[in-house]
Amino acid sequence: MSHPAPLSSAERRAISYANTLHLLVSHIFKQREGADRVLANYFREHKKHGSKDRKLIRETLFGLFRWWGWLKNLPAADDANANIEDSGFSSGLGEAHSPRWFTQLSLVAAIENHQWQDIRSGWLSQANLSQLEIPAFGDTPENLNIICAALIKQFGGEFAPPNLLPDWAWEHISVAGSDKLAFVDALCRRPPLWTRAQGTSREQVLKQLEADDIGAVPSKVFADAIELASQSINLDAVTAYTSGKLEVQDLASQAIGEVAAPKAGERWWDACAGAGGKSLQLFSLMQKRGGVGELVASDIRPKALEELLRRADKAGVAPIQLSPWRSDKLPVKADYFDGVLVDAPCSCTGTWRRNPDMRWIDDASAILDKPALQLDILRRASAAVRSGGVLVYATCSLARAENEAVVEAFLASDEDFELDTTAHPFSGEHCAVMTLWPQQANADGMFVARMRRR
Question: Where is the active site (predicted)?
Fold first, then answer.
């Protein structure tokens, strides 16, 4: 009687990684909890993992969600126990020791061209596949079609780029046909690390980064924006960051401040300030243009405002006034501000390249349960705008229901406000209502509308 050959050390490690990843993915789908938080908790509880282990687990985990729209459609004929639950969230997730699961892991490693060859070989062996003829993700959107063709050739079935987003998303996110492939391509790429010079010139920050041997590329779009070359950089070892001269802020988020365009000496209110990224940017823009008049930040979350003060103190920013929302009553003076920014809570579909898991653990309710709240916040905040002042509405959503529809409903109910045309930060087109698409500037997706009180 023959016995199976003993597993090699690499094969045992490959199986161990596979078990860990299956545990994490199953938890994320079942609990509908964000991958970042789940992974952070796991590493906190399992100190045994070194930096190489963490890198492999992290990159594979997020890769699984980037390509889940294809992975879940793999044929399950070789896996009688394939988990295809009615809930739909984990539909297509193979059992932990099944060939299907190891095929899914092998595909992620092949498409993203992971470097750990011994682990890739171990997964391929457990998938009962002699070879995997799937090309790596290339530099152009057309490469997605090439990968689809290879998947169909090897596995049969149907694979197409739009599958990489859930069907419900396409019902709410309207992308021109000619841009759809580029949009999907952008969402499947790892996001860059965008930063911004704070309280000093970009040239000075670039010199400090060079002294710390950190690669950086100045943005061609905004005078303060800097892209850091490494996505896995330890910011606590970056002098410019620890001294408050470098703020982490995505390029699309920076575009909101540029559309607001605060002038020297003006009074501005950040009505949904959160941890203060845009508040600090508004301060910086006014400072560069001649001086800050008055800047007030509000939020319903005390801890977020505490973080804002910490960041402001680190950056050496003069006091930003805090005025928390404590009730439905306006927390600031009415008819007072030259500009009001409403960065409203939203579905965050524009951050899906940064959080690919959210595509699959959210559903349409993430979009549909927000517009009423967004419109209510916008109406309340608008009361603080003085005659002739500016009202800026923004979200990190790409869904019309949270964006254009909210602005249209607001303008229909308040004749004191009208659209105020400005230049699109990325395209240069003159408009008042604009979507910032991920494929336009290698950034998150956002929406912004600029209005003015008559």
Answer: 396 (nucleophile)
